[in-house]
From TrEMBL:
<dbReference type="InterPro" id="IPR008158">
    <property type="entry name" value="Translocase_Sec61-g"/>
</dbReference>
<comment type="subunit">
    <text>Component of the Sec protein translocase complex. Heterotrimer consisting of SecY (alpha), SecG (beta) and SecE (gamma) subunits. The heterotrimers can form oligomers, although 1 heterotrimer is thought to be able to translocate proteins. Interacts with the ribosome. May interact with SecDF, and other proteins may be involved.</text>
</comment>
<keyword id="KW-0812">Transmembrane</keyword>
<dbReference type="InterPro" id="IPR023391">
    <property type="entry name" value="Prot_translocase_SecE_dom_sf"/>
</dbReference>
<comment type="similarity">
    <text>Belongs to the SecE/SEC61-gamma family.</text>
</comment>
<dbReference type="GO" id="GO:0012505">
    <property type="term" value="C:endomembrane system"/>
</dbReference>
<keyword id="KW-0813">Transport</keyword>
<dbReference type="InterPro" id="IPR001901">
    <property type="entry name" value="Translocase_SecE/Sec61-g"/>
</dbReference>
<keyword id="KW-0811">Translocation</keyword>
<keyword id="KW-1003">Cell membrane</keyword>
<dbReference type="GO" id="GO:0006605">
    <property type="term" value="P:protein targeting"/>
</dbReference>
<dbReference type="GO" id="GO:0005886">
    <property type="term" value="C:plasma membrane"/>
</dbReference>
<dbReference type="GO" id="GO:0008320">
    <property type="term" value="F:protein transmembrane transporter activity"/>
</dbReference>
<keyword id="KW-0653">Protein transport</keyword>
<dbReference type="GO" id="GO:0009306">
    <property type="term" value="P:protein secretion"/>
</dbReference>
<feature type="transmembrane region" description="Helical">
    <location>
        <begin position="30"/>
        <end position="53"/>
    </location>
</feature>
<keyword id="KW-0472">Membrane</keyword>
Amino acid sequence: MNIPKNLSSYIRVLKLASTPSTEEFSQVSLVAGAGIVLVGLLGFIIFVFMTILPGGA
C-alpha cells in the first residue's frame, strides 16, 4: 500500500475543491427538493392505489 501517493492525491483534490456560490447552492437544493417531492408523491400514489384496488375487487 502506497500511503504517501494516496495522501497526495487526496490533498490535490481538496485544493481543487471550492465552496459553491449562493446561486449554485440554491439551484442544487431546488433540484434535490423537487426530486424528493416527486419520489414521495409517486410513493403516495402507489400507496393509494394499493389500498383502494384490493378493497374494490
